Hints:
Residues 4-122 form the FAD/NAD(P)-binding domain. By secondary structure, the protein is an alpha/beta fold.
Amino acid sequence: SLGRVVVIGGGFGGATAAKYLKKWEPRLEVTLVERNQNFVSCPISNLVLAGVKQIEDITIAYDGLAKYGVRLVRDEAVAIDVDKREVRLAKGDPLPWDRLIVAPGIDFLYDQIPGLDSVEAQQQVLHAWKAGAQTVALRKRLEELPDGGVFAISIPKAPYRCPPGPYERASVIANYFKQHKPHAKVLILDGNPDITSKKALFLQAWEERYKGIIEYRPNSVLQDFDLRGNVAKLEFDTVRADLFNVIPPQRSGRIATPLANVGGRWAGVDFRSFESTAVPGVHVIGDATASAPGMPKSGFMANNHAKVAADAVIASLTGLPPNPTPIIANTCYSFVSDRDVVHVASVHKFDTQENTLLPVKGAGGLSAVANDLEGKYALAWARNIWADALT
Ligand code: FAD
């Protein structure tokens, strides 16, 4: 073969990278390591919380990758041995690589919220920020919440996975309450000073649709949590609610620790190739990377990172010149009800002077006020990206 490429993590980034490596250069040996049985999509998972979709609608098997010749290893990567150039697994034999792509997504920094830094606490207070069992469990609790109850969602300081995701979640749950529990409330405790994505569009939707249901409180950094009283401790305040959804502060997935050279949390990369700035020959893509200016941590971005990285890996193993100025794009759709959607789009081009990806001026922008045509686009987008990554 031309070389062995190992990909850690079969999410939006890793699955796309593994598929496109084989599609573009079948002579490579490509091994994808994934610990989960199925792919469960975070995009559209807020509609599962709202009772509009089922978990089956966002769950996809991994067997579609076999036809490209991707070897799937269902195991947990437990260490990256940079000197030996191999990935150690929990169960199987170590996997040697000529090039490694690391795409583990995020992990949570529970040590920043002492009251939640235990297994029991994390079973009681769910994040549902990795789609799967927690999505189903949080939906069940929302169904059990009495009419008149308060659901509180805590948002960490940026950067975190999916900047508009918490506001989408608040919106679609408010819509569920409006229809099924008209006296229940959604309280948003935002660790940021303001809404960080699509602000005007969200505020308009809340004003027109959820007046008296959604309450937004900026600068509400969660500092601790009292499990017995179900009380969130903020800097100057304590807040009780009937049901909490705490999205904790985040970092790159733990397996990327040797590569997390930006603030000890995120992996710095050369944006022409997504090669790590910490370890040569290793590429990092998706949420685990330290984002370039104006670049969100999104599934769409992870999918685009994957293609730039796959191209660069093939170039390095075949001696072809790499693309000097990659261009990638993003669209984030957000549901504000069971069918009406808003979006933000952007294009990012490598700037040789600044040595990073920068938003292209005049490209992209915001959608019109929430509407159901955008809702159709949003569902079509999801089906397309799942197919692009996995089938
Ligand atoms: P992931 O997709 O999380 O994949 C990482 C994979 O690696 C996982 O399958 C994990 O099991 C595996 N893994 C990790 N460590 C190991 C290990 N040591 N061994 C083996 N396997 C490992 N993005 C959009 O573009 N549009 C949206 O509409 C959108 N909506 C969202 C809504 C919500 C509620 C949330 C939470 C996110 C949303 N996102 C959306 C963001 C999107 O889900 C993430 O940006 C995307 O999943 C990042 O892709 P990734 O490949 O970096 O990580």
